[in-house]
Design goal:
This protein is an alpha/beta fold. It has 2 domains: 50 residues, ATP synthase, gamma subunit, helix hairpin domain (Helix Hairpins, Orthogonal Bundle); 220 residues, ATP synthase, F1 complex, gamma subunit (Pyruvate Kinase, Chain: A, domain 1, 3-Layer(aba) Sandwich). It contains 5 helices and 7 strands; from the N terminus they run H-E-H-E-H-E-H-E-E-E-E-H. A 5-stranded mixed sheet has the order 3-2-1-4-5, with helices on both faces. The longest helix is centred in the C-terminal third of the chain and has 75 residues. The chain is elongated and about 110 Å long. 28% of the residues are buried.
Length: 289
């Protein structure tokens, strides 16, 4: 049976931990609000841009631009998988879920994969296990900027255009609500094509009238589309991380309260048992005299 001093020390340690988790919850809640505002502002533009360019990609010749080129995947083709994780932990299963989903994709992929790792947790996991890493970005979530997304997008575009990668896949956590995040694995390059249907049959491919030339529009618009989609994924992942961290710290705070109550009750029982034993000893000594 532990002594009263040991129990008091343990209760004091749990209370100190509770103060830390409570403070981390408040900080995560504050950062979540700002991250959620940025994500909500970027979503409509990114989704509308994706819808328009997916429709455009359906109607134009894939040879019109390198980012539209659809390559036939063979066992020798290479896939660049960009995995977005967090730089920190203490966020429940946030990092575990995306790493597990990415690992399942790597196992099931018929093509060899090279990795683009965004976030320290994903970098540490995959590098330690000897996966082929094409690039990595660490520490960008401290002050997330559009330039960070542009750098990642340009690296992916160069790999795709040069033939280093035959397709580029993006894996990240999508923010659904404060208590819910969804792992998303979606194609980034080539530009996904929309399925256009009319009256139950495939609609005929109709070209657009371009001003200026199609090449000038594609050269400016398609790389920007890739940058915007990467930026949206980073914002989604950042907001989802703070939501997961806030939820995890709230749960830890509640668990520490329950542990403190349990330890306090146990300490009182130990103290009462010690007092009872001393009273019995005194009474027994008095009867002996």
């Amino acid at each position: 049976m532990p002594s009263l001093i040991d129990l008091r020390r343990r209760i004091r340690a749990v209370k100190n931990t509770q103060q830390i988790t409570k403070a981390m919850k408040m900080v995560a809640a504050s950062k979540l609000r700002r991250a959620q505002e940025r994500m909500t502002s970027a979503r409509p533009y990114a989704r509308q841009m994706h819808r328009v360019l997916a429709s455009l990609a359906t109607r134009v010749d894939p040879a019109a631009h390198p980012l539209l080129a659809i390559r036939e995947l063979t066992p020798a083709s290479t896939t660049l998988l960009i995995i977005v994780t967090a730089d920190k932990g203490l966020c429940g299963s946030f990092n575990t879920n995306i790493i597990k989903a990415a690992g399942a994709f790597l196992v099931e992929s018929p093509n060899p994969c090279t990795l683009g790792l965004v976030g320290r947790k994903g970098r540490d996991f995959f590098v330690r296990r000897g996966f082929n890493v094409f690039f990595e970005r660490i520490g960008i979530f401290q002050k997330l900027k559009f330039d960070d997304a542009r750098s990642i997008a340009m690296t992916a575009i160069e790999a795709f255009v040069s033939g280093t990668a035959d397709q580029v896949i993006l894996a990240y956590n999508e923010f659904k609500s404060v208590i819910s995040q969804r792992v998303v694995i979606e194609p980034l390059l080539p530009i996904p094509r929309a399925e256009v249907e009319a009256e139950g049959e495939a609609a005929p491919l109709v070209d657009y009238l371009y001003e200026p030339s199609p090449q000038a529009i594609f050269d400016d618009l398609l790389p920007r589309h890739v940058e915007v989609q990467v930026y949206r994924a980073l914002l989604e992942s950042n907001a989802a991380f703070f939501a997961a961290q806030m939820t995890a710290m709230d749960t830890a705070t509640k668990n520490s309260s329950e542990m403190i109550n349990s330890l306090t009750l146990y300490m009182n029982k130990v103290r009462q048992a010690a007092i009872t034993r001393e009273i019995i000893e005194v009474v027994s000594g008095a009867e002996a005299l």
